[in-house]
Amino acid sequence: MSITIRKATEADGPSLSVICLLTADAGNSAEHLHDYGELPGLVYAVPYIKLPNTWAFVLVDGSAVVGYIVGSQDTRAYEDYAQKHWWPVQAEKYPPERAQRPDDKKYAMLLRNMHTAEEPNISFSPAHLHINMLEEYRGKGWGRRMINTAVEYLKEQGLPGVWLGMDPRNVDARKFYERLGFVGIEGSPEHVVGLSFN
Predict the structure, then answer these.
(1) What positions does the domain N-acetyltransferase occupy (predicted)?
(2) Max Cα separation, the chain?
(3) Residue 16: CA atoms inside 13 Å, Cβ hemisphere, count?
(4) What is the number of alpha carbons within 13 Å of residue 23 lying toward its C-beta?
């Protein structure tokens, strides 16, 4: 079967949610950390096929979605909309007092006080991204192709670059981004890197 990259649709939501869970522990599966396995995806994947000011592409093997790259071309507008229309709805579904596991409680609290981008990130570029793929598809050039697909799309939107935050424990991810030309952003935390299109 051929592996392709295509634009994501809302129908891809369940796949994005599963992939996010299977990579949420610094690139490894977080299944053992959650009773509510949908929580990582509700924060880091699914909003990008539901909300305005977003874009998303998926890596597909046959008919199965095996990876995704998602983001916003206008992070501040995305944050503002999500703060009013997405996080409150999710927060109501997941009261922290119902969570038994620490990671479920952490996400339930996050839904009530979602982090926003640091100002140096926005000065670097209004656009940010998240990328994940199943382990068996890593190291085969698909991550690079997904990043290239996103970069071409964002260039067409007239954006100067893109940035992302990563889990500081994920050393392999940092090496991957550095190989693609991502660098630290002055004034931003060490786990944030950006790629300039110029």
Answers:
(1) 3-198
(2) 48
(3) 27
(4) 27
* CA-based torsion, 51, 167, 39, 82: positive or negative: negative
Among candidate residues 25, 5, 28, the one with its CA nearest the CA of residue 134? 28
- Cα–Cα distances (Å) from 57 to 5, 41, 150, 183, in that order, read 7, 15, 8, 23
The two three-digit tokens of residue 64, written as one number: 């199965």
Coil vs helix vs strand at 109: helix
Which H/E stretch holds residue 133? strand 128-133
The one-character DSSP state at 28 is B
Cβ-contact 111, 90 below 8 angstroms: yes
List pLDDT tens digits, range 103-162: 999 999 999 999 999 999 999 999 999 999 999 999 999 999 999 999 999 999 999 999
Residue pair 124/186 in contact by the 8 Å Cβ criterion:
no
In the block, which residue shows the tokens 């539901």?
50
The model's pTM is 0.97
The position carrying tokens 């000011």 is: 53
Instruction: Print the SS3 string covering 47-107.
Output: HHHCCCCEEEEEEEECCEEEEEEEEECCHHHHHHHHHHHCHHHHHHHCCHHHCCCHHHHHH
